[in-house]
Amino acid sequence: MMINDKFYRMLGLAVKSGNAVFGEGAAKDSLKSKSQLVLVSADASDNTKKKFRNGCSFYNVPYIECSDRYSLGKATGKGFAVVVSITDKGFADSLTNILEQSC
Hints:
This protein is α+β, with helices and mostly antiparallel strands. The chain is built from 5 helices and 4 strands; from the N terminus they run αβαβαβαβα.
């Protein structure tokens, strides 16, 4: 999936505003209560992808597989990021809309 700069800028804003959770454990915990969107890097392990696809399906949270861990990390100010959970509905909707428009 082709990810554009607008997506990464919006993701960066979500992180800076405190509306993102990083890491498998924290993202999995946020699925139960506050996650609005889960982003998983395309180069994540098959087990990680399956775990989050199933969890997102169960809790009715949108799941997007995108980019690679280093591109997600750069956008979020980390070295790398395999799983990012967006906890704000507005940011989740904006990120989803940007991806839909770029396809």
